[in-house]
Design goal:
The chain is an alpha+beta fold. It has one domain: Alpha-Beta Plaits (2-Layer Sandwich). About 20% of the residues lie in helices and about 35% in strands. It has two helices and eight strands. The longest helix has 14 residues.
Amino acid sequence: MFASKMPAAMAVQVTIYLNEADQWHHRPLHMEILNYLRKENAYAAIAIHAVAGFLGRQRVETSHLVEAGGKLPVIIIFVDTDEHVNRVLPTLKEMAAHRLIVRENVVLEQGSLD
């Protein structure tokens, strides 16, 4: 006999593409966004410092270039409920003005947002 599978939970994942030189009130933007998400009780968030990449059709920057200074990509990913994302997104759009923000509906295969 097959065990019935519980329905997977739905969530929203937001990805914000920055570079390490981006700032908010003279502080690193990626840290300010993480601090804001923590203060707003987001379920989970991470900042990933890329070793190579590009933003806005610019040239590829890599960690191997000494002159890369401040141009390497930083990606923030966070997951939460649709309601919570709708509440924090306006401030994030203000903080990361002119940067790419992607919102996706995702399925939680394991774990929950409780």
